[in-house]
Amino acid sequence: MTFDNFDWGFQPGLNVEYLKDLNELGFVVNRQPLLILGKTGTGKTHIATSLGIKACEAGFRVRFYKLQELLSMLYATLADDTTEDVINKLTRLDLLIIDQFNYIRTKKEYPSLLLDLVSACHNRLALIVTTSISFEEWGDALGNPSITHAIVDRLFDHAGIINIRPGRSYRTEGPNAPKQYHPDKPTS
Fold this sequence. Notes:
CATH superfamily: P-loop containing nucleotide triphosphate hydrolases
CATH topology: Rossmann fold
Strand content: 15-25%
CATH class: Alpha Beta
Order of helices and strands: HHEHEHHEHEHHEH
Helix content: 40-55%
Radius of gyration: 18 Å
Number of domains: 1
Number of helices: 9
Structural class: alpha/beta
CATH architecture: 3-Layer(aba) Sandwich
């Protein structure tokens, strides 16, 4: 998943110039968050991965996690009291990508762990967060709206936003999407 194989014309509402500007990685140098919003299949993960690969090629230290696996990893550190060590290790990165902030299998500790991580990363490294749900739904997704509000507050500080919510799903409407069968139309 790079910008070399990204279909630039598929999402007409996508600000291509802004994306090309992000590709220069100024947001990584400036340690800014980037929030990518959109329905399933609109290219959020492709954009995040492409920027991550570009950052790796430029010599930046980058890690990519799906939110569920990141929270599970942080939760596991509670057993041996290594949470602070793991968070400190993550804050030594230049770019941390957190993919698929949506409805997850949550535990009551997850919101606090995520707040600890986001707070530690704030102004120390760039974050990319992809989400298919609105920020208002994050509290329900994590199970604690008040802590989630603090997370969103930190992420919005100096953040760039790519909003492809009204976009089309590449999986269901793109060139490789399954063809729909219509019984009243002859097949070719």
